[in-house]
Design goal:
The protein folds into two domains: about 5-150 and about 310-340, Alpha-Beta Complex (Quinone Oxidoreductase, Chain A, domain 1); about 150-290, Quinone Oxidoreductase, Chain A, domain 1, CATH 3.90.180.10. The chain contains eleven helices and 18 strands. The protein has helices at about 40-50, 100, 140-145, 150-160, 180-190, 200-210, 225-230, 250-255, 275-280, 295-305, 325-330, and strands spanning about 5, 15-20, 30-40, 60, 65-75, 85-90, 90, 110-115, 125-130, 135, 170-175, 195-200, 215-220, 235-240, 255-265, 285-290, 315-320, 340. The strands form four sheets. Strands 3, 5, 6, 9, 10, 17 and 18 form a seven-stranded mixed β-sheet that branches. β15 (about 255-265), α9 (about 275-280) and β16 form a beta-alpha-beta unit. The longest helix has 14 residues, at about 150-160.
Length: about 350
């Protein structure tokens, strides 16, 4: 089958479209999906560059997000049937550890992600556990469906489960050009919260106004924390959604008000941050990490999608053969929304 692969870590030069990749076979409790489209995430750039403790077996298939049609199912599968249109949950759990038994599948001691720890979605076919697919409407735009799951599931857990955003909250979201940031915005606005967003691009901030933001800040030209303090009478925001890490951490805490909650799902600018513990306890902050979501949260975001809610913005669509160009677009940080790779017609 065709697949977008790497055989070694490095830069964009490592990305290769191959047509001789082994075709995965379905087994018990598994589902084989013919993929119509996949989407890129910053995770894919990290995997390309190499992550500590993550080993790849060449040719390694990239990609976490995807949507397609069920082609075959294992003997014990009842969740879906052949011919169903589905979206894929990229988070793989064993379903048996103590965290899975408590319903917290993304806390599984053997948690893995497609494209990072297991062969990914940038291919003609993929085989995943039946619990990792969910039915969507057959008439769905498959490019949109492919762009939905990872970002929306991640944002849902951050906003709803971890930070427990309420209508009275003021929320700061960094980097509104990205998929998780935009999904978090949409979820916060459904809840009724007031949302501040940042970008280093005035053009992206103007576009963000069209999807419901209340306040915009160019983090290249203003001190985000000082500006928020000034506009809120020194009270700050009650929630910060930060997936940037090192470059934004100090400003995130500077913008956070008393009893504020900061939730992070990544460190695109660097992994090591510093916190003045005196400010932490004095302001009674809560700092939380968040990764993907559990099965009930996956069901919640799929329900929202099938109801026409939380629909992502598509930045651009590339063909599988042009996958390297899609990665270049992601690496440029110029995108506004999700970058999609079309696989099947």
């Amino acid at each position: 089958m065709r697949a977008l692969t790497i055989s070694a870590h490095g830069g964009l030069e490592q990305i290769e479209i191959r047509s001789d990749v082994a075709d995965p076979a379905v087994t018990t409790n598994m589902v084989r999906v013919r993929l119509a489209a996949a989407a890129l995430n910053h995770l894919d750039l990290f995997t390309l560059g190499g992550l500590p403790g993550v080993n790849i077996v060449p040719p390694w298939i990239m990609g976490a997000d995807g949507a397609g049609v069920v082609e075959s199912i294992g003997d014990n599968v009842t969740e879906v049937a052949v011919g169903d249109t589905v979206m894929i949950n990229p988070g793989l759990s064993d379903g048996t550890c103590e965290f899975c038994m408590q319903g917290e599948h993304s806390e599984c001691v053997r948690f893995r992600l497609l494209g990072e720890h297991a062969p990914g979605t940038l291919a003609d076919y993929i085989v995943v556990p039946a619990r990792n697919v969910a039915r969507i409407l057959a008439a769905t735009d498959m490019n949109v469906a492919a762009a939905y799951t990872l970002a929306t599931l991640t944002a849902w857990r951050m906003v709803v489960t971890r930070a427990r955003v309420r209508p009275e909250d003021e929320v700061l979201i960094w980097g509104i050009g990205g998929g998780v940031a935009q999904a978090a915005l949409r979820i916060c606005k459904e809840i009724g919260a007031r949302v501040w967003v940042t970008s280093g691009s005035d053009e992206k901030l103007e576009r963000a106004k069209s999807i419901g933001v209340d306040e915009v800040l160019n983090h290249r030209t203003v001190n985000v924390a000082k500006e928020i303090r000034a506009r809120t009478g020194k009270r700050g925001v009650s929630v910060v959604i930060d997936s940037v890490g090192q470059a934004t951490w100090e400003s995130s805490l500077g913008a956070l008000g008393r009893a504020g909650r900061l939730v992070t799902c990544g460190g695109t600018s660097g992994a090591i941050v510093e916190t003045d513990v005196r400010r932490l306890f004095w302001n009674q902050w809560t700092i939380m990490g968040s990764t993907m979501g559990n099965d009930s949260e996956f069901a919640a975001v799929v329900k929202a999608f099938n109801e026409g809610r939380l629909i992502p913005t598509i930045d651009s669509v590339y063909q599988l053969e042009d996958g390297k160009a899609a990665f270049a677009r992601m690496a440029s940080a110029q995108q506004f929304g999700k970058i999609v790779v079309a696989i099947a017609g």
